Amino acid sequence: MHLQAILGAISLLIVSVLSDSLPASSDIFYWPVGAPQPSVLARVAYDPATLTSNVISYNTPKTGSDSTDNLIRIGFYTSTPSNSKQWVGSLVSLSALTDKNQPTLRLHLGPANEVYHVDLAASDKGDSGVELVLSQPGAQPHLNRPVVVRPDGGEADVVEEKTFFQK
User: Fold this and answer.
1) Backbone torsions φ then ψ of 154, nearest 5 degrees
2) Contact yes or no for 84/115 (Cβ under 8 A)
């Protein structure tokens, strides 16, 4: 009985280690403004630890004759506490996706390495690529430093240090 429990625990450990080492994947959709629902633009796999990514599949959007189809949304669905299927995306020109130089999809990753935004960047390559953008902490203010002011409330005069010859 103990042997089965030990083997079960080892198999759970192996599965959890393998699932942590596998790259994450995300479906990126394109959604013409006049269309009722989105279509899959690309399926990408990425590893936030090594910042490597791979385009598994890319579907070039179909050009329509309708003038409202010149603007399309690119994005993905995410889950929020208030909505289990929340759309997150950007508005781009259809020509940005159908040029002979395919754009680079930029996936912006949050602190927990989850995708929180997607947008496009121009690409010099002939194929579509993926760029991972990590969030960077902003500048931190210097708090609890005393502010020196004159009695009238203005900034205090900075006393210039005299050189040896001036002293």
Assistant:
1) -80, 175
2) no
